[in-house]
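Revision sheet: structure tokens.
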Amino acid sequence: MKEVVEKLIEKSMTISTMESCTGGGVCNSITNIEGASDVFKFSAITYSNDFKIKMGVNPDIISKYSVYSMETANEMSKNISLFTGSDYGIGVTGKLNRVDKRNLHGSDNTVFISIYDKKRDCYTNSIVKCSKKCRALNKELVILKIQDELLNILK
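Predicted:
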């Protein structure tokens, strides 16, 4: 994420995250970089539907598409950007190596990534199929995908 932080600093832009299955991993990877305090505004780890909704995700989107959907990831990325006034918001939701008894809908081992660009009012969306048996390795795959997407956006 060093190059991401450097590009955000260079462009005087900011970023925030709303993460579910990555549990703050994206935030951690950004804030591990010196200078991150110049660009990183806020992170919310919203494991439960209740806290996704409290952070602005429309409950009708969760009901209609499931909490594990690109529509929910888009709600997460846009709402965290608006809440913090960040140029970019990242939303991450998905299932990693487990069945969620409270949310049975949605594909297993699939993570939905949304990066919201406030200036352009648009999303960059990605789906990561997680095949590793270890949760930590699957989180790493997701974080690397987000890093790659951010680098493409910030060119």
